[in-house]
Amino acid sequence: MSPGAADDPGVETPGTRPAFSSLLEDSAEDLYESAPCGYLSTLMDGTIAKINATLLGWLGLSREEVVGRKRFSDLLTVGGRLYHETHFAPLLRMQGHLGGVALEMRTAAGPRLPVLVTSTLKRGSDGEPLLIRTTVFDATDRRVYEQELLRARRAADEAREQAEADRAQLREALAVLQRSLLPAALPDLPGVETAGYYHTASPMELGGDFYDLFPVDDTRTAFFLGDVCGKGPQAAALTSLTRYTLRAAMIQDADPVDDLSVLNRALMERYTGDDPRFCTAVAGVFERAGDTLRVRLASGGHPPALVLRSGGTAEYLRTRGGMLVGVLPTAQFTEVSTVLRPGDTLLLYTDGLTEARVGPGRRLYGYEALLAFAAARAPVGSRALVDALTGLLRDFGDGLDDDTALLAIGVPATP
């Protein structure tokens, strides 16, 4: 053996593995015929002049059936043929190359074969097109993947649509339930202007704020406003119990302190052990006396009522000593009185208003800002005041993360 022969991969020697060169394709023609993709060449009118064995095998056709007898468009489905004639062929003639076009070919056995087609014009020395060379890739796996992806996307869209429908249905149900915890409308009272408003921070959560106003007899009218702890169904149940207990108590005995005591006992009896529940509330009664309203009210841990005077001032009614309702069996409540004259307005509100976050530092809106807001608008009627506060709540945007109830009672200014 000559020196170095064993190291030459192109030389075969006894007892050695086949030479590297023998692993190469036998010829360029074999490479063309057995390529992992389809090849065909067509004349400019589309007549097939040459086609490889790979593509013939995919289609289940013989060379004699195809070469010189069929055009490339004849191998396509009806839709593919239309697209080829109206788009593919004209673009190819203009551009000279077109790649990655998805088409479908007909097979002898019947099933359609999804393919990706790339075609290039071969030109002569004078620049005139001579024939079209086309490469065809089997896109069956890709089509299956695309269909699975499409089904998954369609299923995801349907799931999103169903989820949105469910949310809309839930929002509607929650809105109906929320409205059931509030008076449908406030009564018309001679010589008295009233207005109420409820702002829902989230349409997907039941709030715990409440208010009501109703005549007790021919001369007196009772009212209350409050906020229960928590949110959701449990808060709604507590709100319902609180509202109807207070209403029944005030119809029976319109004494604000006694009425809050009745509510306190009801909550202590209903919510005991590991599930304590409580609320803040302000309850009151007013009586018409000439052109004034004599108001008595008591607070159970609730933010102080605000009075806007006809002279252009505003002040809080301090109800010192008022405890949370439903926490202690011996809770104490203190009564406070005031007189509303023509042009005066009494405002009750829940802490969603004063605890809104405002400004770059997200600071609490607070009682001082509310007092200044009210004083800047005094004197103002009940409806105008509630409208102004509604706009303020809207301006808070996402800084308002708690429900807010408003109830205003006033004596219209004398013309």
Automatic annotation (TrEMBL):
Record CDD domains? PAS
Q: Which UniProt keywords apply?
A: Coiled coil, Hydrolase, Kinase, Transferase
Cite a single GO MF annotation.
kinase activity
Instruction: Tell me which species this is from.
Output: Streptomyces pseudogriseolus (Streptomyces gancidicus)
Q: Where is this region: Disordered?
A: 1-20
Coiled-coil zones: 142-180
Q: Where is the PAS domain?
A: 24-76
Q: Is the keyword NAD in the record?
A: no
Q: Which lineage?
A: Bacteria, Bacillati, Actinomycetota, Actinomycetes, Kitasatosporales
SUPFAM superfamilies annotated for this entry?
A: PP2C-like (SSF81606), PYP-like sensor domain (PAS domain) (SSF55785)
The UniProt entry, under InterPro entries, shows: Bact_Sigma-Reg (IPR052016), PAS (IPR000014), PAS-like_dom_sf (IPR035965), PPM-type-like_dom_sf (IPR036457), PPM-type_phosphatase-like_dom (IPR001932)
Q: What is this protein called?
A: Histidine kinase
